[in-house]
Every structure is written in structure tokens, then in C-alpha cells.
Design a protein that fits this description.
mainly alpha; two-stranded antiparallel ribbon; about 5% strand; binds flavin-adenine dinucleotide; Fum_Rdtase/Succ_DH_flav-like_C; FAD/NAD-bd_sf; Succ_DH/fumarate_Rdtase_cat_sf
Length: about 325
């Protein structure tokens, strides 16, 4: 549906409108009550400000938040049935956790599971890792040292533009490789951001998290050399769905060298079979780091390894580098 929507927008028939003006009053009132109260009360005020009404005006529609949308379920921190993350003592629930079809009910259920399990654990009694504390302190307070550095608003805008221009679908190995290159380079820019107030400090810390997520999304999209989920992961250079190779979760972890590396984990058999999908099963495949397209170099500062190159010598951009 989103792909069709995108095609309409791109055609000379666009834009796309929500049209209710031809419907009887009760068919207009029902969605209006939900959209203007339960969902987003500001929406009614917004339309009223423009002098628009569903009874008299069609509403222009657009695609939003598609670039990095995890969808309240499709991505996030890997957890088990007790909401335990892979780091001992760490839990994740709600939008942060990767639980299929999570949404609000999933947030409540997994929040409860996490609380139950955590209540049965002993308090951590070891020493706190001082190096990690120092790094966290540095992340938060660093912008105070360069108050005249680039402001957060400008750096965040630039970062988001790269996400929009290079990671948002339709995706390609070339654009995703460029994205990774930009995100890696922006580490330096982000480290130089300036701030003077607690609010600005918070926003600066958020920019570094946005950068991390952007790089993870770009590298994951490069690794998945197929198209899936309609527009959401449409790779123009890998247009077919490949269930044999990719009806898999893509686990991302930080390697010992600090690089992002991937494992493809087969989807579990469905409790209720779905005709169109037959999970292939089998063992997980360790994929290692993803190769970038020709000419793209993206070694993260501080990562002690030569830059990864790919796309040449018969290896397409966006394939795994190693498969031990
Ligand atoms: C437009 C929209 C419509 C939706 N419609 C539905 C629906 O109809 N049905 C449904 O089930 N789900 C719906 N969802 C999804 C649902 O809202 C989320 O899955 C759910 O709210 C996730 O809960 P959460 O507690 O994990 O995260 P959140 O509700 O996002 O809560 C996280 C909280 O943490 C706070 N926070 C963030 N950073 C910090 C910090 N550094 N320090 C302190 N606090 C911090 C945030 O301000 C926020 O209050 C919708 C979501 C959206 C965006």
C-alpha cells in the first residue's frame, strides 16, 4: 500500500487526498471523533486553523517517518520471554524492545514481565566500570567545553537530511554506502557541538543517539540484500523477496574491535501457519561486517581495522564481508 501511495505521489496524478466530503454525516463524524480526540487532539485545531473541514475539503496526505521507523515492534533491543536483554541485568520493554506486534499492549505486558523478573534478581554488587562512567560523563558534558561549536539544531538537521536522502526507501547499495560514510564522518562534527544550557546538553546527547541509530539502520539495510515489507525495505538493486536467505531476524552487535557486525537468525516456525511464509529454519549465519559500495570508506574513529571495501571483484555492495 505504501509503495502504491509513493507511486501516486511521484506521478503527475499526485498529491493524494483523504476524501470524506461525499459520505453521509455519520461516516464523517465517526473517524473525526477518533482522529480529533483519541488520536491527536491537535489535529482538529490544525484543520480548523486552515479553515478546512472533512465535509467541505479533501485533506492532502503524505508519507511520514518512513526512513527510520522501527514500528513499535519491528526493531529494537533483542529480548527473551522475560524481557531480558543479552546484557545480564538489563531489560527492555515497549518501543525500545524488539517484540513483534508490540504496540501499547506489548509495552504493558513486557513491562510487567521485566518487573517480575527483575524483582527476583539480586542487586548488582560489583564495582561500577569507571571507564564507562567516564565515557557517559563525557557524552553528556562535552558540549560545555565548546560553547561556540556547531549548534545542535544545525547538526541534527544535517543528520536527519542524510537519513531522509540516503536511507529512506527506495534504498540502494550506493546510497546506503554514502549514508554510512556520512554518519561515520559526522561523529567528529557531533563531538564538536556546543551547548550552554541543560536543555541543549540533553538535545546534544540525543543527536549522538540519533547518529548511532542512523548508522545501525543504514548498515542493516545494506546487509539485507533483498526487498521486503513493501516500500519499507525496497532495495532497487535487490528487488526480489528472498525468504530462503532472509526470512530472518538481523541481529546487530558491537564486535570486540568496536565495529557493527551482523548475524542472520532464522524466524521461528509460526504457531499458526501462514500460507505465504514458510520459515526456512536452520542455524544462524554469522555475517560479520557489511561491505560498502565501491569507493566508500567508513572506518569509525578508534576502530583498529582497515576500512572495509566491497562492491568490486564480483561482490555487490551491501553483502556480508565475512561468513566464517
Ligand atoms: C501516532 C501514534 C499512534 C499510535 N497508535 C497506537 C494505537 O492505536 N494502539 C497501540 O497499541 N499503539 C499505538 N501506538 C504505539 C504506542 O503509542 C507505543 O507502542 C507505546 O506508547 C510505547 O510505550 P513506551 O512506554 O515503550 O514508550 P513511550 O510511550 O514513547 O514512553 C517513553 C517515555 O520516555 C520519555 N523519555 C525519553 N527519553 C527520556 C530521558 N532521557 N529521560 C527521561 N524520560 C525520557 C519520553 O518522554 C516518553 O514519555 C501509536 C504510536 C504513535 C506514535
Amino acid at each position: 500500500m505504501m509503495a502504491e501511495f509513493r507511486d501516486e505521489l511521484a506521478s503527475d496524478r499526485g498529491p493524494v487526498y483523504l476524501k470524506l466530503s461525499h459520505l453521509p454525516e455519520e461516516s464523517v463524524t465517526a473517524p473525526e471523533n477518533i482522529l480529533h480526540s483519541t488520536e491527536r487532539p491537535t489535529r482538529g485545531t490544525f484543520h480548523a486553523g486552515r479553515g478546512h473541514d472533512y465535509r467541505t475539503h479533501d485533506i492532502e496526505m503524505h508519507i511520514s517517518e518512513i526512513g527510520l521507523c522501527g514500528g513499535h515492534s519491528a526493531s529494537g533491543v533483542r529480548v527473551d520471554d522475560h524481557a531480558r536483554a543479552t546484557v545480564p541485568g538489563l531489560y527492555a520493554a515497549g518501543d525500545l524492545a524488539c517484540v513483534p506486534h508490540n504496540y501499547m499492549i506489548g509495552a504493558f505486558v513486557f513491562g510487567g514481565l521485566a518487573g517480575q523478573d527483575a524483582a527476583g534478581q539480586r542487586a548488582y554488587a560489583g564495582d561500577l566500570p569507571l571507564e564507562q562512567l567516564r565515557e557517559a560523563h563525557e557524552l553528556v558534558y562535552r558540549p560545555l567545553r565548546s560553547p561556540d561549536g556547531p549548534p545542535q539544531t544545525q547538526v541534527e538537521y544535517k543528520l536527519r537530511r542524510f537519513v531522509h536522502d540516503y536511507v529512506a526507501p527506495p534504498k540502494s547499495g550506493a546510497r546506503l554506502s554514502l549514508a554510512v560514510e556520512h554518519f561515520v564522518r559526522m561523529r567528529t562534527e557531533i563531538a564538536g557541538m556546543g551547548a550552554t544550557t541543560p536543555h541543549e546538553l540533553m538535545r546534544c546527547a540525543e543527536v549522538s543517539f540519533i547518529r548511532d541509530c542512523a548508522e545501525m539502520a543504514a548498515r542493516a539495510s545494506l546487509t539485507r540484500t533483498e526487498s521486503r515489507w513493501g516500500l519499507y525495505h525496497e532495495r532497487t538493486d535487490h528487488p526480489r523477496r528472498d525468504d530462503q536467505g532472509w526470512l530472518h531476524h538481523l541481529d546487530l552487535r558491537k564486535s570486540a574491535s568496536g565495529a557493527m557486525e551482523f548475524t542472520a537468525r532464522p524466524v521461528e516456525p509460526y504457531l499458526v501457519p501462514v500460507d505465504e511464509y514458510a520459515p526456512a529454519g536452520g542455524p544462524s549465519r554469522h555475517l560479520g561486517e557489511v561491505a560498502l559500495g565501491d569507493g566508500h570508506v567508513a572506518a569509525a574513529p578508534g576502530v583498529s581495522r582497515p576500512p572495509v571495501r566491497g562492491g568490486g571483484a564480483g561482490r555487490p555492495a551491501g553483502g556480508p564481508v565475512s561468513s566464517p
